[in-house]
Specification:
The protein has 209 residues and is α+β, with helices and mostly antiparallel strands. It has a domain at 27-80 and 113-189: NADH Oxidase (3-Layer(aba) Sandwich), CATH 3.40.109.10. The protein is 37% helix and 13% strand. It has 6 helices and 4 strands, in the order H-H-H-E-H-H-E-H-E-E. It has helices at 6-12, 15-22, 36-47, 66-87, 89-99, 134-151, and strands spanning 59-63, 121-128, 155-159, 180-189. A 4-stranded antiparallel beta sheet has the order 1-2-4-3. The protein is globular and about 50 Å long. Residues 100-110 have low confidence and may be disordered.
Length: 209
């Protein structure tokens, strides 16, 4: 029997490291609601993220109504397709190919909900428009939430296209102020797939001695 690689042995003895390696972006969810208490735990984990000058710029809008999620998804899909079309055909192909991770993703544009993938909970994360560092802060906040979700038996997926909610009629349901903007949405639910881990680049480190 071959000995396990040292790094893998360390991961398996460390719950945090193992959780980082086990997290996947899931795009197929079971039709099971997520308890609000669990969602609150995810939000608390997000709030523990570091932020520039400790401004904690994030604000959360949690949507759990199935019909509203479907409506938002359809409207965002229409807007996002128009936005992608402006990029050009080469970039469109590259974007779609990058999106495809599993066989069922080949039906990308044929899915009834290819934005939110039937997730039972969608967390829109916003910040004030004039905060220069908000994107970095929100990113760290969302990573905390996704790792927390995995540790609680939930799955997640970050959706950048969710920012186009601002260009839809459905945005009124969020009640955003004119001073804030949507950075991203996090899908939360019980996954109905286990995506394979993709190879990670190893040639992107420079040590300065």
């Amino acid at each position: 029997m071959m000995a396990k690689e040292p790094n893998k042995m360390i991961r398996q003895s460390n719950e945090i490291l193992q959780n980082i390696y086990d997290r996947r972006s899931v795009r197929k969810f079971k039709e099971v609601a997520v308890d609000r208490k669990l969602i609150e735990q995810l939000l608390d984990a997000g709030r523990m993220a570091p932020s520039a000058l400790n401004k904690q710029p994030w604000k959360f809008y949690v949507v759990t109504d199935k019909e509203l999620i479907r409506t938002m998804s359809k409207q965002i899909a229409k807007v996002s397709v128009k936005q992608i079309a402006k990029i050009g055909i080469k970039e469109i192909v590259k974007s779609i190919w990058h999106y495809i991770h599993t066989p069922h993703d080949l039906n990308f544009f044929n899915q009834s909900d290819f934005i939110f993938h039937g997730a039972p909970a969608v967390i829109f994360v916003t910040a004030l428009k004039d905060n220069e560092w908000a994107a970095l802060d929100v990113g760290m906040c969302c990573q905390n939430m996704m790792l927390a979700a995995k540790s609680l038996g939930l799955d997640s997926c970050p959706v950048g296209l969710a920012k186009f909610i601002e260009e839809t009629k459905a945005v009124s349901k969020l009640g955003l102020s004119k001073k804030e903007t949507v950075h991203i949405a996090i899908l939360i639910g019980y996954g109905d797939e286990v995506p394979e881990i993709k190879e990670r680049k190893k040639d992107n480190v420079v040590y300065i001695s």
